[in-house]
Amino acid sequence: MILATTRRIFRRLCRSMRAPLLLCLPLTGCLEFVEPPQATTPSLPNPLLIGTLTGPTTYQSRGQGPEGFDYEVAMQFGQYLGVETAVVPYSDLAALFEAMESGEIHLMAAGLNRTPERAQRWHFGPPLYQVETQLIYRVGQRRPKDLASLDGTLRVVKGSSRTELLRRAQQTLPNLQWQETDEFDDAELLAQVAEGSLDYTLVDNRVLALYQRRHPELRTAFNLGQPLPVAWALPHRNDGLLLSALLEFWDSELTGGRLARLEEKYFGHVERFDYVDTRAFIRAVEKTLPRYQQLFQRHAGELDWRKLAAVSYQESHWDPLARSPTGVRGMMMLTESTARRMGIRNRLDAEQSIQGGSGYLQQLITRLPPNIPEDEAIWFALAAYNIGLGHLEDARVITQRHGFDPNSWRDVKKHLPLLRQRKHYERTKYGFARGDEAAHYVENIRRYYDTLLWIDSQTVAEHSEGDPEQDNRF
C-alpha cells in the first residue's frame, strides 16, 4: 500500500517535469531532453526478520509449533505487508540487542518496555499495553514496604528495564545494591525466589501472573515507578518506511479487533489468582492425575487431553465419585440426560464419565455458530457445558445489543454476568442464568490448562535430556 503510493507520486512528478521541456524543443532546436535520473524507490525488507525473546508472553515452541502473543502479531504484520516473514527467537536480551545493532534483524517484537534510555537508542512503535514493575518476594518472608527496607539479595536480568529503574532509585538511595545477571531469565529468577535461594527480584505484573500459577509462593511487595508501555522497536537507521507501515498496521489491527483477540488469548485469564487453589491443583497433578492420565489421552479425540483433564479437575477435582446437589455426578459431572444421550450407563465409572464428557464437549463445539473463531470455540463450548447452549446464545445476543462482538470470547465473557440481572434476562429467550459463574468456570479451566502445559513440558524436558530424538517432540 505504502510502496504503491510512493510509486504513483513519483510517476506524477516525472510527467510534470517532462512536459515543459518537450514544449521548448521546436523553438530552440538545440535542447536535448534528458530523462530525469531514476530515484531509488524505498522498499520494505523481504524477507522481514523480526527478533523476539523466548518466553510465555512472547514466543515458545510447543507440539503444534511456535506460539506467543508477539509471535502471532509479528506473523500477522508480515502477512499485512505481503512479505515473507521469519520470527527469530533469542534466549537473552544481550543477544537480541546485538542482532538489532548489527542489522541481523529489522525490528524487535519482544515485549520490551519503552524507557527513556531505550527511546534514545531505538524508534518505538505504538504501545501494545502497559505493565507495572513489581518487587517479588516469597510468602512467609517479611514483606518490604520499599527499596530502602530490603533485607537480602535483589537480583534482576542484566540489560532489562528494571536496571534503569534501580539506577534512578539509587540517586536518592546511594546504599541501594543489587545484582545483574545474564545467566538467568525472569522465569529462573522467580523460581529461585519461590524455592528460597533468592530473596527478591523485579518483574512486570504480567510475567508474575503467568508464573504465579506455577509458583504460588510468589508475592508482590510493591510496585516500582510508573507503568511502562510495551512496544516494538526499530533501529534509528530505518528509512521510515517500515515504521510507517507499522503505524498503519496497528491502526488496522486495533480497528479490526484482532489485537484485542490475541490479548484475550494470552492474557485474558491470568489476572485472578488463588493461592490455596493453585497449590491444591499442583498437588493433585502430582498425586491424582497419573491414575487417570491415560484415560484422558485415550478419549480426548480432537481435544488436547490436557484441556479435557483441566475441565475434569474444575468439575470434580478428579474424583470419580463426585456428586452435586443438582444431581450431576462423576469425573465430568454429567447429568442423567447427557449421560443417556452420550450412551453412558454408569456416571461413576471414571472411564465412562471421561468418554461421555469428552464426546459431549466436542459435540458442543460442532453446534456453535460458524463465525466464532476456531481457536476460541473451545471457550464458548465450555461456557455452554456449564450453563447450556441456550443461555450462551442469550449472552451473545446481549453482547451484540451492547455494541460488542458476539463472536469474541473477550466480549461475551464480560456480558455473561448480565444474565443474572432481570432487566437483561427478561429480554432473553432462556431467562435467568448464573453467567458470572460460567465466565469464572472457563477462566479457571484456562489457568489449569496452562499450568498443565507447563508441568508437562517440564516432565518432557527431564525425560528427554540428552536424547536428541526426544528433544524434538515439543
TrEMBL record:
GO cellular component terms, semicolon-separated: cell outer membrane
Signal peptide residues on this chain, from the entry's feature table: 1-29
Keywords tagged on the record: Cell outer membrane, Cell wall biogenesis/degradation, Lyase, Membrane, Signal
Molecular function via GO: peptidoglycan lytic transglycosylase activity
UniProt xrefs under SUPFAM superfamilies: Lysozyme-like, Periplasmic binding protein-like II
Coiled-coil annotated residue ranges, if any: none
Description of its domains: The N-terminal domain does not have lytic activity and probably modulates enzymatic activity. The C-terminal domain is the catalytic active domain.
Name listed for the protein in its UniProt record: Membrane-bound lytic murein transglycosylase F
Gene of this entry: mltF
